[in-house]
Amino acid sequence: MKKITQKDENPFEYTDNNKRYYTYDYYLKKTFGGKCAKIPIDAGFTCPNIDGKCGVGGCIYCSPRGSGDFALTSDVSVREQYERTREKMAKKWSVERCIPYFQAHTNTYAPVNVLREKFEEALLCDGVVGLNIATRADCLEASIPELLSELAERTVLTVELGLQSADDKTAEIINRGHSFSEFVDGYQRLRAASDKIKICIHVILGLPGEDREMMMDTVRKVARLHPDQIKIHLLHVIKGTKLAQMYDRGEYEPLTKEEYVSLVVSALELLPPDTVIARLTGDGMADELIAPDWSRKKVSVINDIDKQLYEKQTYQGRYYS
């Protein structure tokens, strides 16, 4: 008699293994035929909450490089960044299919002609099958969705929008620089521009002052928007940030591993089953991470999420409506 496995018992639809959520690996397999190498790019942009347009100093948790720590510096051309990083990755992983990822700071915060030049340079690189652009919902002026719509006709385009929290008081604390209603307005304008643009929303669990219900309220509001993808991040305390100063003064306490795993499982239950879970926990540069130390063992965190989903006999979208 064949032994019954977790895969056999899995009630979740969008999977081909024991995972009870729509993994990014499964999405890549369906879309491109297999894994793709994400190539981080720093195009040299800044943010409106850094240069004074809506604030200064940036978000309290953001590193000086605006989350672009894994990319080469912007004094190197987009093509050279891509080629050098791809060559380095090729020593460990397959780089047959690649996705340039404009990750550092806000990658639609520049004149359209500048944006077009940067994005076109990336698309001309060897092995490119898609394009990911990280930005803010308040940096999608009228001409920018049009440009993104054009790109989506030629490649698999994913635009990543940093929400982090739907609570406006939290937005002030983290110095995001725009309200939730402004986020929704930008999201809807992007959605209206083209149904070929895939939209990914970023959410952070464990932001200062937020309790479990506030975090789940953000997840519910994101679920109502029904994005193509979502990235769920753990809040890291990184050296050189305002959050690090708060942590040193005893004004911020990170989530425990048990709290985070429980929060992620509850969040998955609330999300649409066909929304791709592009990330379940964030990465911090090992040498720059202050806390929480348990987050360094990323595989262990993901394994514990899988274990809790199985033990609770639950799955992504169980309570979505």
**Helix/strand class:** alpha/beta
Strand order of the largest sheet: 1-2-3-4-5-6-8
Mean pLDDT: 94
Uncertain runs are none
- Helical fraction: 25-40%
Q: What share of the residues does DSSP label as strand, in percent?
A: 5-15%
Instruction: Output the CATH class name.
Output: Alpha Beta
Mass-distribution shape:
globular
The H-and-E topology, N to C, reads as HHEHEHEHEHHEHEEHHEEH
Number of strands: 9
CATH topology: TIM Barrel
- Major beta-sheet overview: 7 strands, parallel
Number of domains: 1
- Name of the CATH superfamily: Aldolase class I
| Helix count, DSSP H or I runs of 4 or more residues | 11
| Known CATH architecture | Alpha-Beta Barrel
Rg: 19 Å
End-to-end span in angstroms? 39 Å
Characterize the structure shown.
This protein has a single domain (6-311), classed as TIM Barrel. The longest helix has 14 residues, at 180-193. The chain is built from eleven helices and nine strands. The mean pLDDT is 94. Helix 8 runs parallel beside helix 10 and helix 10 packs across helix 11. The termini are far apart. 41% of the residues are buried. Helices cover 36% and strands 15% of the residues. Strands 1-2-3-4-5-6-8 form a seven-stranded parallel sheet. It is α/β, with parallel strands linked by helices and 321 residues long. The chain has helices spanning 6-9, 24-32, 78-89, 112-123, 143-152, 168-173, 180-193, 212-225, 242-248, 257-270, 298-311; strands at 37-41, 98-102, 130-135, 156-164, 198-205, 229-234, 237-238, 276-279, 289-291.
